[in-house]
Amino acid sequence: MSDTVDKLVVFLAKRDGIDKLVKTFQYVSKLAHWHAESAHPGLAGRAKSWEVASGLSRKAFRSGRFLTGFNTLRRSPGSTPLLRFLAVFANAGEMVYFFFDHFLWLSRIGALDASLARKMSYISAFGEALGYVFFVVIDFIMIRKGLAEQKKVEKAGGGGGKEESKKIRAERVMRLMAVAANVADFVIALADIAPNPFCNHAVTLGISGLVSAWSGWYRNWPS
């Protein structure tokens, strides 16, 4: 029990840890609002307020995060020309997303003209969706590379083979969690780029948000 508490403290000390927790609040409240809207309007109103507050607080907490893309490219540009190419577009899309998200937040809290919100939301979501496409491609390339390496390790055998194989499997799980999160967030971005009955439905958005939050929770949880 104490070990779990210690891990929770470490998790919540991270920016991403707090973000995943508040994202969980945001999308649970979205589903609660949808479920209670017709039968319990008072409860639905409170759930909607919780959803909006959670969404705005996440945007404020992510201030300056667009700069992490530059640091990621500087520290880990990719091991091959293809991966470097994909990383540039993936991180560029994410930087556009986080940068214009600042203006979306400011317009929604009234610091900027509220009419800017729709345009900022579209640009931010477009950059987000573009980044996710490239991130997913990178993860699938690395998963395929890991499978090939695992086969070589298992074929060679040896004392360190089991440990190396275990390490590769653990990395594959993390990348699959990243793919799940990115695909889920891509669906949410599509709801802003091209509104449609499926992507914009409260259940689709709610489930997608929770898949993204919990996948990120798993990836950021201290080992």
TrEMBL record:
It is found in: Peroxisome membrane. The chain crosses the membrane at residues 82-100, 120-142. GO terms for cellular component: peroxisomal membrane. Its main location: membrane. Involved in peroxisomal proliferation. Belongs to the peroxin-11 family. This is (wild Malaysian banana) hypothetical protein. It comes from Musa acuminata subsp. malaccensis (Wild banana).
